[in-house]
Amino acid sequence: MKQEADLRFHSQITRNSIAMILAGGRGSRLRQLTDWRAKPAVPFGGKFRIIDFPLSNCVNSGIRRIGIATQYKSQSLISHIQHGWGFLDGRFHEFVELLPAQQRIEETWYQGTADAVYQNIDILRRHNPDYVLILGGDHVYKMDYSKLLAYHVEKSADMTVACIGIPVESASSFGIMSVNDDLRVTSFDEKPSAPSPMPGHPGLALGSMGIYVFNASFLFEQLILDHDERSSSHDFGHDLIPYLVPRHRVFAHRFADSCVNMVSGVPYWRDVGTIDAYWEANLDLTHVTPDLNLYDDEWPIWTHQEQLPPAKFVFDDDDRRGQALDSMVSGGCIISGSTVRRSLLFSNVQVRSYSSIEDSVVLPNVDIGRNVRLRRVVVDKHCVIPPGLMVGFDPEEDRKRFYVTEYGITLITPEMLGQKIHHVR
To answer: Looking at 309-359, which runs of residues are DSSP E strands?
Structure first.
């Protein structure tokens, strides 16, 4: 009976909530992968885009009113949303609504994360929500937002911040907070140079995930106050949260309490904001038991899926065998007399004969010529890899044409190959 009551409680809260996904950032640490697309539109996991994860979390949690604030090079993102996220039914007040920066209130583009919400305050008010869920569009994770919302209500909070333990050595890239025994936030420091570790956990700091819940009327009031403050950069982490913590009821919510499909009890959340992190998170999916479960019927990740033929593997000669080992190969791919090892191939990749692909991530619509050898590379969409090319064996030689990370992962884009692409990417 208690479980049924909890479900009804969660359902009522989610129906009275609206989600706002902030998807306007470039994600410059992904280098040339974001030259033509915003970070939330970057492909991930063989068939998805990064933004599919917070969107799927919303739908699976019962939140069916979603706004997406876009700004930087958003055409690829807009096209993806239009093709893949039009299934919600407006007759039942369900929607995914694109909110591009359009100078609705003043003659400025979005100035910060808080300003992106402020500039759409009239749209949010029109929907008359009780609660507003603010999300980033650029992280990979599975989370039941209904549990976060229920926690917010139970705490009688004005604002709730989802949090996770971050290794201290990398915590300077996050908002770091301190909490009391009741998980009420007592301090918040955005991207501190010397992050304070959690009590009893010297190697970890308590980091904000950039996921916030507000009582709607409280949020609108605070956004207006922040907008009128000339010294503010109008950012949640830099300005709004540090202002609210000593004055209002701000609580932290542990991600482990709402994470879905935890493997070995460890919550999965990835900021795939660098080429190295992006490569590693994608290749993790090829493991026997990956940390991120994409095979869960109860919490599926939704996306736009083209109608493509199955992957095909042809030729079975000793020197010309089409095969993929410890790999993920998406629909429309043809592996023709070549070997793919420990790699992830997105849709419509063709690997021609006598080639070898190892420890690599190959994005959609790539044509790999004969006698090619690729190792530890990320290949962007629409690349045509010329016959005989070798990448990943001589970093100094690779740096003359491509981008090579400090950990030796090589990024290849059409422009680096001297190829001009006219498709939306």
So the answer is: 312-314, 316-317, 320-321, 323-325, 328-329, 334-336, 339-341, 344-345, 350-351, 356-358
- Residue 99: inside a domain: yes
pLDDT by 10-residue block (mean), the chain, 425 residues: 66 93 82 89 96 97 94 87 85 85 69 91 95 95 97 97 94 93 96 89 93 98 94 94 97 97 87 94 96 93 92 95 98 98 98 98 98 98 97 96 96 94 66
Residue 298 lies in a domain: no
The answer to whether residues 111 and 22 touch, using CB atoms and an 8 Å cutoff, is: no
Q: Determine whether the annotation assigns residue 110 to a binding site.
A: yes
Q: Rounded to whole angstroms, how far apart are CA atoms 197 and 123?
A: 40
Report the predicted TM-score, pTM, of the whole model to 2 decimal places: 0.94
Q: What is the DSSP string of 398-411?
A: HHTTSEE-TTS-EE
Neighbours of 211 (CB within 10 A): 25
- Judgement on whether residues 344 and 379 belong to the same structural domain of the protein: yes
Task: Flag whether 420 is marked binding.
Answer: no
Domain residue limits at 72: 1-286
Tell me: do 281 and 139 sit in the same domain. Answer: yes
175 labelled ligand-binding:
yes
Q: Does the annotation place 190 within a ligand binding site?
A: yes
